[in-house]
């Protein structure tokens, strides 16, 4: 038994018998291979505990523990699927070449490879998703979702930080390119501005084109990013004002199809009397709508783009739904 208060795991979580059987047709030492599978599981679980222990706070401890347990269970399920598939694979070196079913074994090998890739991909996906929730560095750089309750505040802060950075880069270039200061005076001036020693030396060292200071492309890119964020901020503020001023009213836009602007969850929703036909589902997906089982609706983020998409698809949607009703 190993682990911590965050996660408990043991060698018995993985069936050694299954791991040995999975390699009995492809290895001269299936017992060693089986033991290696169990050891890899133990290492993977300990590595996850070690990594996420660094991110634990009083507030997120229970959430991290629950996610680690979900990772452990998912790891085992995906691993077992791979081991079961691999147990059907046989090597000609082990079974002998006589009457060896090459094509059948190739298909089984492909299936086992697919299960292995699914297992490893899922593990990487799960860990990366957890990092996006708990790693402070990832959280600081995480994109701002439009449906965040404080999206406007976060975006305003991000814009202010980018503008501050823009002014700082311009100030660095002003000092670096000054003809009145020698390098020592420039270093002193930059240090007084709070610039790190590393950045000071980089700024005073010419690049491949003989240029000093912050490269022009960095200034241009940051400025373009500021403009993009300000445009998005305006859109969010318009959407917020609309939500406060308007009371959403459900509207039938096609036979049996109701449009609703759900400002509580920031979603534009389409409700159907039942499961829409395939042609309608294809149309919805093409226009960015996904089905929510929780809401019982086809929906996408509530914004002007979503409203425009509905206006464009409404004639075709009405045609398809009208055609369906005429056939009933």
Features:
alpha+beta; five-stranded antiparallel sheet; two-stranded antiparallel sheet; 8% strand; flat
Explain how this protein is built.
The protein has 328 residues and is an alpha+beta fold. It has 3 domains: 139 residues; 93 residues; 77 residues. It is built from 12 helices and 7 strands. Helix 1 packs across helix 2, helix 3 runs antiparallel to helix 5 and helix 11 packs antiparallel against helix 12. The protein is flat and about 80 Å long.
Radius of gyration, CA atoms, in whole angstroms? 29 Å
How many domains? The number is: 3
Strand order of the largest sheet: 3-4-5-7-6
* Principal-axes shape call: flat
Structural class comes to alpha+beta
Uncertain stretches of 5 or more adjacent residues: none
Count of strand segments: 7
What's the helix-strand series?
Answer: EEHHHHHHHHHHEEEHEEH
Mean pLDDT: 85
Per DSSP, what share of the residues sits in E-state strands of 2 or more residues? 5-15%
Sheet of most strands? 5 strands, antiparallel
Please work out how many helical segments DSSP would assign.
Answer: 12
State the helicity in percent bands.
Answer: 55-70%
Short description:
This protein is of the alpha+beta class and 328 residues long. It is built from 12 helices and 7 strands.
Write the SSE topology.
Elements (H helix, E strand, L loop, with lengths): L1 E2 L4 E2 L6 H8 L6 H24 L7 H26 L5 H4 L6 H33 L1 H5 L10 H26 L6 H10 L4 H7 L12 H30 L5 E4 L2 E6 L4 E5 L6 H9 L3 E3 L4 E5 L2 H24 L1
Helix pairs in contact: 1-2, 1-3, 2-3, 3-5, 7-10, 11-12
């Amino acid at each position: 038994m190993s682990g911590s208060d965050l996660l408990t795991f043991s060698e018995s979580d993985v069936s050694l018998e299954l791991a040995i059987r999975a390699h009995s047709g492809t290895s001269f030492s299936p017992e060693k291979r089986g033991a290696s599978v169990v050891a890899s599981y133990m290492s993977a679980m300990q590595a996850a505990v070690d990594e996420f222990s660094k991110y634990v706070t009083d507030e997120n401890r229970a959430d991290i523990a629950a996610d680690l347990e979900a990772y452990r269970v998912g790891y085992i399920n995906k691993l077992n699927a791979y081991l079961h598939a691999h147990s059907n694979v046989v090597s000609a070196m082990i079974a002998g070449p006589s009457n060896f079913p090459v094509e059948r074994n190739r298909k089984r090998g492909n299936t086992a490879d697919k299960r292995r890739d699914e297992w490893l991909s899922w593990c990487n996906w799960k860990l990366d998703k957890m990092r996006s929730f708990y790693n402070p560095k990832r959280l600081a750089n995480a994109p701002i979702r439009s449906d965040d309750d404080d999206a406007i505040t976060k975006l305003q802060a991000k814009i202010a930080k980018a503008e501050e950075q823009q002014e700082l880069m311009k100030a660095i270039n002003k000092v670096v390119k000054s003809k009145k200061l020698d390098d020592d005076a420039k270093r002193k001036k930059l240090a007084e501005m709070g610039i790190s020693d590393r950045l000071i030396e980089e700024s005073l060292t010419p690049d491949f084109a003989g240029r000093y200071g912050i490269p022009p492309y960095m200034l241009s890119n940051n400025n373009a990013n500021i403009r993009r964020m300000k445009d998005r901020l305006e859109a969010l503020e318009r959407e917020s004002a609309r939500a406060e001023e308007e009371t959403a009213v459900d509207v039938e836009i096609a036979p049996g199809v109701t449009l609703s602007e759900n400002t509580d969850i920031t979603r534009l929703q389409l409700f159907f009397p039942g499961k829409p036909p395939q042609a309608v589902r294809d149309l919805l997906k093409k226009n960015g709508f996904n089905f929510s089982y929780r809401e019982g609706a086809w929906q996408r983020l509530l914004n002007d783009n979503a409203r425009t998409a509905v206006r464009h698809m409404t004639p075709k949607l009405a045609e398809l739904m009208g055609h369906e009703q005429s056939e009933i």
